[in-house]
Amino acid sequence: MDRSLVSVRTALVLLLAVLAGACAGLLSVLAGNGTMGGVLAGLAAAGGAVAVFNQVIAPDTAPGGSAVREAGARGGSDRG
Q1: pLDDT means over runs of 10, the chain (80 residues)
Q2: How far apart are CA 76 and CA 37, in angstroms?
Q3: How many degrees, rounded to 5, is the angle at CA 36 between CA 34 and CA 42?
């Protein structure tokens, strides 16, 4: 197999979401909300973190190159 199952960006987004959820759950348990409250807080934080990190982390570039790089190679910009 030449291809990986997930891209590096996807793995990073999911890893950061799991870390954010674990931290939120741990803080919730330490605050005295109980185990189930911590689990719910962690799941909610992880779900929100996926959406945030998906927007924050730049998407992978296309194999052919980006439009900005191609416009720079032509020596011009897209402004008319």
Answers
A1: 86 96 97 96 96 89 58 59
A2: 56
A3: 100
